[in-house]
Every structure is written in C-alpha cells, then in structure tokens.
Amino acid sequence: MSRESEFRPILSASPHRAPERAELLDLAALLGVYAPYDGSHALRVPNAYAVRSSRMNAELFHSVYQPSVCIVAQGTKTVFLGPNIYEYDAQRLLVFSLELPMASQVTQASAAEPYLCLKLNFDPAQVARLSGLVYPHGLPPIRENRGVYVGDSTAGIVATATRLLTLMADEGDATLIGPLVVEELIIRLLRSSVGGRIAQIGHEESTVQRVAKAVDWVRAHFDQPMDVPVLAEMVHMSPSTFHEHFKSVTSLSPLQFQKALRLREARRLMLTGRVDATTASRQVGYASASQFTREYGRLFGLAPSRDIAQLREHGPVSSAAN
User: Is the pTM here over 0.85, yes or no?
Assistant: First the structure.
C-alpha cells in the first residue's frame, strides 16, 4: 500500500470553514514523513519546508524570519516582536510580511505529538502576479501595517497543503505539479482573512514594501552608522513618517532594529567564529564593549561569555525556523 493511500478522503463542505481534526491529522502525518527529526527540512519544491519540534522550550530561540506563511498541523508556537506576542496553532496560521529579527518559543509539543508546520517563503513577484488575479480591481485596503499577522486557517488551505505534501513522494510530480499547487495555496491564502496583508508583499509601493526596502538596507549595512533621514529619503518618506511606519511594521524603531541585528550577528560570530566578545562587538559596529555587554544581556538574558558557553554545552534551542 502506498503512503498516499493511507490518508482519508478530504472532507467536503466549504473550503473556508475551519479545518477538522481528521484533515489536520493527514497533514501532520505527511509532515512527519518529511520532517523525521527536529528542524526545518527543505521539500522538493522551492521555498517550501517541513518543520518539526518534539519538545517545548522555556528559552527563546532567536532568528531572522523571511516573508512567509506558517501552516501548523499540530502543536502551538509563539513569536515575539518587540512588545507584541503572536501565538499560532492548527487553527491559526502566521504570516510574516518582511524579514524580521524575532524570538520564538514552542509552547505545545511532545515526542508523541510534535509541533509540525509547513512553511512557505513568499516570492514577491509571484505574490504580485497572483494578487492581480485575485484582486483585479485593486488591492483591498488594510487597517494597519504590521510585519506579522495571525489569521484563521481554513479547510481549503489545509487540503491544498496536504495535496502539496503528497506530491513530494515522486520527483516528477514534485517538479511538474508541485509549483502549480504552491500557486493554488497562495491564491487560497490571498482569499483568506490575511489575503490583503499578503498581497502587500507583492506591491512595491505599499507601506510594507517600502519599509522592507529600508530593512534590506539596514540588514546589508548593520555594522555602519545609520542616518535615518537619508534612509527615509531612500524610500520616499519624510523622517517622521518613515519612523512612524517603520515602527508600525516592525514594532521597533530603526535604531532598535539595527541593534537587534547587530546583537544576533555578534552571537553568531562568537558561537561559530570562535571570537571573543570584544572582537565580535567591534565587528558588528559597537564602539563601547560595556554597552555591547549590557545590551546583549538584555536581549539574550545572559552576559556574552556565559551565553556562548551555555550554547556550546547544550547546543542551540531546537525550535526550527518557523
């Protein structure tokens, strides 16, 4: 009996209804096949990943998240962006509108029932093309610009995600049919409660995309002094408007955002490059070692030397990328 034949037929009724347990179990079973151990596992279609975490974690996992959607089949996860907290599970999907430095925590998972998620990174050009089909008369207005959204998952979205996973068993199906199913999945997302927000990812003149352009610059030059008025001019905003929109989208001021990137890069350098805290702080743009130590402890909970020693002893928290 083939693996696919073990799964039950998709339940009928409106694709906009909430997914039922049987549908989620089918998706979870397939995700378990393609994520056999904890971590993020690339699938046979570009930008798609099966994610698994078999335990809850008390510590926060720090990472940079790309524009993407996370469709959970099992378990619960929480992400933290500035003062904002977003929890998502099998009934609620999570959308990231741009690259953001965030912390996350798996809050419901076990070896018997691990956290399982399908993550799809968005291609802005593809989102723009499909948004034109879904919204031929113009994009719907959105009330607020944020970098992260939680929305309701639907039976149609889960069914399409399940169908995508079933194609992964055959390389030909994955190569030829998989991209078509990815497009169906994006269309279903565009027609969901978070559709207007996802559409902004592909719209170059949207506030989110203009902030994303600034974020790209900060990420590429995080070790250099930041001139906020120049950055605002680059994205065609006044300094005050830019600051307001940047904080609305990222939940951080431009300087706070730069600091978050610097501290994460310093942590990576110390952990993988075997450099000391003073060298790492200098390489990421800090002029004061004491300021670096103080801000590092505020973000990661420990002084640099103690944090890196703990990570080397126990390994990074296994929380996967999404």
Answer: no
